[in-house]
Amino acid sequence: MAASAIRHLEQICSGHVVCGVPLSRISRWRIGGLADVIVRPRNIEELARLRVWLHSEGLAHVVIGATSNLLFADEGLRVICLQIGGDFASLSVAGCEITAGPGCWVPGLARRAMQAGLTGLEHTCGIPGTLGGLICMNGGSQRKGIGDAIVSVTSVDAQGNVRHRTREECAFAYRQSVFQTCGDVIAGAVLRLRPTPDRALVRREMLEILGSRRRKFPQKQPNCGSVFVSNPAMYGEYGPPGAVIQRLGFKGRRLGGALVSAQHANFIVNAGGATAGDVLSLIKEINSAVLTATGYAMEVEARYVSAHGDILPAGSSLTTRPIWRLHPST
Questions:
Q1: If you ran DSSP here, which 8-state letter would residue 142 be given?
Q2: Contact, 63 vs 156, CB < 8 A?
Q3: Catalytically active residues, by annotation
Q4: Tens digit of pLDDT for each residue in 37-53?
Q5: How many domains does the chain have?
Q6: CATH code of the domain covering residue 139
Q7: From 36, 102, 196, 235, which residue has the greatest number of CB atoms within 10 Å?
Protein backbone atom coordinates (compact mmCIF):
# COMPACT_ATOMS: atom_id res chain seq x y z
CA MET A 1 0.00 0.00 0.00
CA ALA A 2 1.27 3.47 -0.89
CA ALA A 3 3.00 5.36 1.90
CA SER A 4 0.83 8.42 1.18
CA ALA A 5 -2.32 6.39 1.86
CA ILE A 6 -0.88 5.15 5.15
CA ARG A 7 -0.04 8.71 6.17
CA HIS A 8 -3.56 9.86 5.42
CA LEU A 9 -5.04 7.00 7.44
CA GLU A 10 -2.79 7.98 10.34
CA GLN A 11 -4.01 11.58 10.11
CA ILE A 12 -7.60 10.39 10.48
CA CYS A 13 -6.90 7.74 13.16
CA SER A 14 -3.68 8.86 14.84
CA GLY A 15 -1.92 5.97 16.54
CA HIS A 16 -4.52 3.43 15.47
CA VAL A 17 -3.06 2.25 12.15
CA VAL A 18 -1.02 -0.98 12.12
CA CYS A 19 0.73 -2.51 9.10
CA GLY A 20 1.68 -6.11 8.39
CA VAL A 21 -0.68 -7.73 10.92
CA PRO A 22 -0.73 -11.56 11.06
CA LEU A 23 -4.44 -12.31 10.86
CA SER A 24 -3.82 -15.64 12.58
CA ARG A 25 -3.12 -13.65 15.75
CA ILE A 26 -6.46 -11.86 15.81
CA SER A 27 -8.61 -14.57 14.24
CA ARG A 28 -10.59 -16.78 16.62
CA TRP A 29 -9.82 -19.61 14.19
CA ARG A 30 -6.11 -18.69 14.37
CA ILE A 31 -5.99 -18.78 10.57
CA GLY A 32 -4.97 -16.20 7.97
CA GLY A 33 -2.02 -14.53 6.28
CA LEU A 34 -0.76 -10.96 6.70
CA ALA A 35 -3.09 -7.98 6.51
CA ASP A 36 -1.45 -5.04 4.75
CA VAL A 37 -3.02 -2.53 7.13
CA ILE A 38 -5.60 -2.51 9.92
CA VAL A 39 -7.23 0.76 10.98
CA ARG A 40 -9.10 1.01 14.29
CA PRO A 41 -11.33 4.13 14.42
CA ARG A 42 -12.04 5.40 17.94
CA ASN A 43 -15.49 6.97 17.48
CA ILE A 44 -18.26 7.52 14.98
CA GLU A 45 -16.73 10.79 13.76
CA GLU A 46 -13.47 9.05 12.82
CA LEU A 47 -15.40 6.21 11.23
CA ALA A 48 -17.40 8.67 9.11
CA ARG A 49 -14.26 10.56 8.02
CA LEU A 50 -12.60 7.27 7.13
CA ARG A 51 -15.50 6.18 4.97
CA VAL A 52 -15.70 9.58 3.25
CA TRP A 53 -12.00 9.46 2.37
CA LEU A 54 -12.03 5.80 1.30
CA HIS A 55 -15.04 6.48 -0.92
CA SER A 56 -13.51 9.59 -2.48
CA GLU A 57 -10.27 7.70 -3.21
CA GLY A 58 -12.08 4.61 -4.48
CA LEU A 59 -10.17 2.40 -2.02
CA ALA A 60 -11.55 -1.04 -1.28
CA HIS A 61 -11.87 -1.94 2.38
CA VAL A 62 -13.37 -4.55 4.63
CA VAL A 63 -14.89 -4.16 8.11
CA ILE A 64 -14.37 -6.67 10.91
CA GLY A 65 -15.10 -6.91 14.63
CA ALA A 66 -14.03 -9.71 16.97
CA THR A 67 -13.72 -12.13 13.98
CA SER A 68 -16.00 -14.64 15.72
CA ASN A 69 -17.35 -16.16 12.50
CA LEU A 70 -14.67 -15.10 10.00
CA LEU A 71 -12.23 -17.28 8.09
CA PHE A 72 -9.39 -15.21 6.63
CA ALA A 73 -7.63 -16.16 3.42
CA ASP A 74 -4.23 -17.83 3.63
CA GLU A 75 -3.00 -15.06 1.32
CA GLY A 76 -3.93 -12.42 3.91
CA LEU A 77 -5.66 -9.12 3.13
CA ARG A 78 -4.53 -6.76 0.39
CA VAL A 79 -7.24 -4.17 1.08
CA ILE A 80 -7.61 -1.76 3.99
CA CYS A 81 -9.18 -3.44 7.02
CA LEU A 82 -11.32 -1.43 9.46
CA GLN A 83 -11.64 -3.12 12.84
CA ILE A 84 -14.40 -1.97 15.19
CA GLY A 85 -13.28 -2.77 18.73
CA GLY A 86 -13.06 -1.62 22.32
CA ASP A 87 -13.30 2.10 21.55
CA PHE A 88 -16.87 1.41 20.42
CA ALA A 89 -17.82 -0.51 23.58
CA SER A 90 -19.94 2.16 25.31
CA LEU A 91 -22.96 0.87 27.26
CA SER A 92 -25.68 2.64 29.23
CA VAL A 93 -28.97 1.53 30.77
CA ALA A 94 -32.07 3.69 31.15
CA GLY A 95 -35.16 1.88 32.36
CA CYS A 96 -35.81 -1.04 30.00
CA GLU A 97 -33.56 0.31 27.25
CA ILE A 98 -29.86 -0.30 26.69
CA THR A 99 -27.80 1.90 24.39
CA ALA A 100 -24.65 0.10 23.31
CA GLY A 101 -21.76 0.39 20.89
CA PRO A 102 -20.91 -2.28 18.29
CA GLY A 103 -17.70 -3.13 20.14
CA CYS A 104 -19.56 -4.32 23.26
CA TRP A 105 -18.60 -7.88 24.20
CA VAL A 106 -21.86 -9.82 23.96
CA PRO A 107 -21.51 -11.95 27.15
CA GLY A 108 -20.75 -8.75 29.09
CA LEU A 109 -23.83 -7.07 27.61
CA ALA A 110 -26.03 -10.00 28.66
CA ARG A 111 -24.57 -9.90 32.17
CA ARG A 112 -25.13 -6.13 32.44
CA ALA A 113 -28.76 -6.59 31.39
CA MET A 114 -29.22 -9.23 34.09
CA GLN A 115 -27.66 -6.95 36.71
CA ALA A 116 -30.10 -4.20 35.69
CA GLY A 117 -33.04 -6.55 36.28
CA LEU A 118 -33.80 -7.03 32.58
CA THR A 119 -34.56 -10.21 30.67
CA GLY A 120 -34.35 -11.03 26.95
CA LEU A 121 -30.62 -11.44 26.31
CA GLU A 122 -30.01 -14.67 28.22
CA HIS A 123 -29.66 -16.63 24.98
CA THR A 124 -26.63 -14.50 24.00
CA CYS A 125 -24.66 -14.94 27.23
CA GLY A 126 -22.24 -17.52 25.81
CA ILE A 127 -21.71 -16.06 22.33
CA PRO A 128 -18.06 -14.99 21.97
CA GLY A 129 -18.39 -11.90 19.83
CA THR A 130 -19.25 -8.21 19.72
CA LEU A 131 -22.64 -6.59 19.31
CA GLY A 132 -22.00 -5.22 15.81
CA GLY A 133 -21.36 -8.67 14.39
CA LEU A 134 -24.28 -10.14 16.32
CA ILE A 135 -26.65 -7.54 14.84
CA CYS A 136 -25.28 -8.00 11.33
CA MET A 137 -25.89 -11.77 11.50
CA ASN A 138 -29.01 -11.45 13.68
CA GLY A 139 -27.14 -13.90 15.85
CA GLY A 140 -28.30 -15.69 18.94
CA SER A 141 -28.83 -19.18 20.28
CA GLN A 142 -31.80 -21.47 21.03
CA ARG A 143 -33.15 -20.40 17.61
CA LYS A 144 -33.49 -16.80 18.85
CA GLY A 145 -32.00 -13.66 17.31
CA ILE A 146 -30.77 -10.35 18.71
CA GLY A 147 -33.15 -8.57 16.31
CA ASP A 148 -36.07 -9.30 18.65
CA ALA A 149 -34.56 -6.90 21.21
CA ILE A 150 -33.55 -4.13 18.80
CA VAL A 151 -35.32 -0.74 18.81
CA SER A 152 -32.98 1.03 16.37
CA VAL A 153 -29.52 0.74 14.84
CA THR A 154 -27.15 3.58 13.95
CA SER A 155 -24.75 3.00 11.06
CA VAL A 156 -22.38 4.83 8.73
CA ASP A 157 -22.79 4.31 5.00
CA ALA A 158 -20.09 4.25 2.32
CA GLN A 159 -20.29 8.03 1.81
CA GLY A 160 -19.87 8.74 5.53
CA ASN A 161 -23.53 9.53 6.20
CA VAL A 162 -24.90 8.53 9.61
CA ARG A 163 -28.14 6.56 9.30
CA HIS A 164 -30.72 5.46 11.88
CA ARG A 165 -32.88 2.43 11.16
CA THR A 166 -35.82 1.08 13.10
CA ARG A 167 -36.02 -2.63 13.83
CA GLU A 168 -38.39 -3.05 10.88
CA GLU A 169 -35.98 -1.25 8.55
CA CYS A 170 -33.19 -3.61 9.65
CA ALA A 171 -35.12 -6.45 7.93
CA PHE A 172 -34.20 -9.05 10.53
CA ALA A 173 -34.83 -12.67 9.62
CA TYR A 174 -33.27 -15.90 10.83
CA ARG A 175 -29.51 -15.14 10.84
CA GLN A 176 -30.08 -12.30 8.37
CA SER A 177 -30.28 -8.51 8.35
CA VAL A 178 -30.05 -5.61 5.91
CA PHE A 179 -26.46 -5.00 7.09
CA GLN A 180 -25.23 -8.10 5.27
CA THR A 181 -25.91 -6.40 1.93
CA CYS A 182 -26.25 -2.61 2.37
CA GLY A 183 -22.56 -1.88 3.01
CA ASP A 184 -23.14 0.20 6.16
CA VAL A 185 -20.93 -0.12 9.24
CA ILE A 186 -22.90 -0.54 12.47
CA ALA A 187 -21.99 2.20 14.95
CA GLY A 188 -24.51 1.73 17.77
CA ALA A 189 -27.85 0.29 18.78
CA VAL A 190 -30.73 0.73 21.20
CA LEU A 191 -32.23 -2.42 22.69
CA ARG A 192 -35.47 -2.74 24.65
CA LEU A 193 -35.78 -5.60 27.14
CA ARG A 194 -38.37 -6.70 29.68
CA PRO A 195 -38.12 -6.06 33.42
CA THR A 196 -37.94 -9.12 35.62
CA PRO A 197 -38.91 -9.38 39.31
CA ASP A 198 -36.47 -12.26 39.78
CA ARG A 199 -32.89 -11.38 38.86
CA ALA A 200 -31.68 -14.66 40.38
CA LEU A 201 -33.85 -16.64 37.97
CA VAL A 202 -32.27 -14.88 34.97
CA ARG A 203 -28.81 -15.54 36.43
CA ARG A 204 -29.60 -19.25 36.89
CA GLU A 205 -30.79 -19.53 33.30
CA MET A 206 -27.58 -17.90 32.07
CA LEU A 207 -25.46 -20.26 34.16
CA GLU A 208 -27.38 -23.22 32.75
CA ILE A 209 -26.78 -21.98 29.18
CA LEU A 210 -23.07 -21.47 29.86
CA GLY A 211 -22.80 -24.90 31.46
CA SER A 212 -24.53 -26.52 28.50
CA ARG A 213 -22.20 -24.76 26.05
CA ARG A 214 -19.16 -25.95 28.01
CA ARG A 215 -20.39 -29.53 27.88
CA LYS A 216 -21.46 -29.53 24.23
CA PHE A 217 -19.11 -27.16 22.42
CA PRO A 218 -15.31 -27.16 22.03
CA GLN A 219 -13.77 -24.49 24.25
CA LYS A 220 -10.04 -25.14 24.11
CA GLN A 221 -9.35 -25.38 20.36
CA PRO A 222 -9.68 -22.36 18.04
CA ASN A 223 -12.98 -22.30 16.17
CA CYS A 224 -15.63 -19.90 14.89
CA GLY A 225 -18.68 -21.47 16.50
CA SER A 226 -21.37 -23.23 14.50
CA VAL A 227 -20.32 -23.64 10.88
CA PHE A 228 -23.72 -24.43 9.32
CA VAL A 229 -27.05 -22.67 9.80
CA SER A 230 -29.94 -24.79 11.06
CA ASN A 231 -32.54 -25.04 8.28
CA PRO A 232 -36.05 -25.46 9.82
CA ALA A 233 -37.16 -27.77 6.99
CA MET A 234 -34.09 -29.99 7.28
CA TYR A 235 -34.33 -29.86 11.07
CA GLY A 236 -37.90 -31.14 10.98
CA GLU A 237 -37.03 -34.02 8.67
CA TYR A 238 -33.53 -35.01 9.72
CA GLY A 239 -32.51 -33.01 12.80
CA PRO A 240 -29.99 -30.21 13.38
CA PRO A 241 -26.82 -29.91 11.25
CA GLY A 242 -24.53 -31.34 13.93
CA ALA A 243 -26.64 -34.49 14.28
CA VAL A 244 -26.83 -35.03 10.51
CA ILE A 245 -23.07 -34.48 10.09
CA GLN A 246 -22.37 -36.91 12.93
CA ARG A 247 -24.67 -39.59 11.48
CA LEU A 248 -22.77 -39.34 8.21
CA GLY A 249 -19.56 -40.24 10.04
CA PHE A 250 -17.79 -36.88 9.93
CA LYS A 251 -17.23 -36.47 13.67
CA GLY A 252 -13.44 -36.56 14.13
CA ARG A 253 -12.81 -36.21 10.36
CA ARG A 254 -9.54 -34.36 9.81
CA LEU A 255 -8.27 -32.61 6.71
CA GLY A 256 -4.84 -31.06 7.18
CA GLY A 257 -5.08 -29.10 10.42
CA ALA A 258 -8.89 -28.72 10.27
CA LEU A 259 -10.89 -31.16 12.40
CA VAL A 260 -14.61 -31.81 12.84
CA SER A 261 -14.92 -31.51 16.61
CA ALA A 262 -15.34 -34.71 18.59
CA GLN A 263 -17.63 -32.72 20.94
CA HIS A 264 -20.01 -31.27 18.36
CA ALA A 265 -20.00 -32.06 14.65
CA ASN A 266 -21.20 -28.57 13.62
CA PHE A 267 -17.86 -27.15 14.81
CA ILE A 268 -14.63 -27.26 12.82
CA VAL A 269 -11.61 -26.63 15.03
CA ASN A 270 -8.02 -25.75 14.27
CA ALA A 271 -6.24 -28.84 15.57
CA GLY A 272 -2.85 -27.31 14.75
CA GLY A 273 -1.57 -25.55 11.66
CA ALA A 274 -4.92 -25.45 9.87
CA THR A 275 -5.19 -23.31 6.75
CA ALA A 276 -8.22 -21.63 5.25
CA GLY A 277 -7.91 -24.10 2.40
CA ASP A 278 -8.21 -27.00 4.86
CA VAL A 279 -11.38 -25.56 6.39
CA LEU A 280 -12.99 -24.70 3.04
CA SER A 281 -12.29 -28.16 1.66
CA LEU A 282 -13.75 -29.81 4.75
CA ILE A 283 -16.87 -27.60 4.57
CA LYS A 284 -17.42 -28.51 0.93
CA GLU A 285 -16.90 -32.20 1.65
CA ILE A 286 -19.46 -32.12 4.48
CA ASN A 287 -22.00 -30.10 2.50
CA SER A 288 -21.70 -32.39 -0.50
CA ALA A 289 -22.30 -35.48 1.64
CA VAL A 290 -25.30 -33.91 3.41
CA LEU A 291 -26.81 -32.80 0.09
CA THR A 292 -26.42 -36.28 -1.35
CA ALA A 293 -27.93 -37.90 1.73
CA THR A 294 -30.79 -35.49 2.44
CA GLY A 295 -31.38 -33.27 -0.58
CA TYR A 296 -30.56 -30.17 1.48
CA ALA A 297 -27.62 -27.88 0.69
CA MET A 298 -26.77 -26.43 4.09
CA GLU A 299 -26.20 -22.69 4.39
CA VAL A 300 -22.82 -21.85 5.87
CA GLU A 301 -22.88 -19.46 8.83
CA ALA A 302 -19.11 -18.89 8.83
CA ARG A 303 -17.88 -16.18 6.45
CA TYR A 304 -14.76 -16.34 4.29
CA VAL A 305 -12.77 -13.11 3.82
CA SER A 306 -10.80 -13.22 0.57
CA ALA A 307 -7.49 -11.44 0.01
CA HIS A 308 -9.40 -8.77 -1.92
CA GLY A 309 -11.89 -8.16 0.91
CA ASP A 310 -14.87 -10.07 -0.42
CA ILE A 311 -16.93 -11.62 2.39
CA LEU A 312 -19.00 -14.62 1.42
CA PRO A 313 -20.26 -17.86 2.96
CA ALA A 314 -17.32 -20.17 3.58
CA GLY A 315 -18.26 -22.79 0.99
CA SER A 316 -20.07 -22.57 -2.33
CA SER A 317 -23.66 -23.72 -2.76
CA LEU A 318 -24.22 -27.16 -4.24
CA THR A 319 -26.93 -28.08 -6.73
CA THR A 320 -26.35 -31.74 -7.60
CA ARG A 321 -29.30 -34.09 -7.11
CA PRO A 322 -29.36 -36.61 -4.27
CA ILE A 323 -27.99 -40.07 -5.10
CA TRP A 324 -29.13 -41.68 -1.88
CA ARG A 325 -30.96 -40.34 1.13
CA LEU A 326 -30.06 -40.46 4.80
CA HIS A 327 -32.85 -41.99 6.88
CA PRO A 328 -34.69 -39.14 8.67
CA SER A 329 -34.25 -38.75 12.42
CA THR A 330 -38.00 -38.83 13.10
A1: T
A2: no
A3: 175, 226, 301
A4: 999 999 999 999 999 99
A5: 3
A6: 3.30.465.10
A7: 102
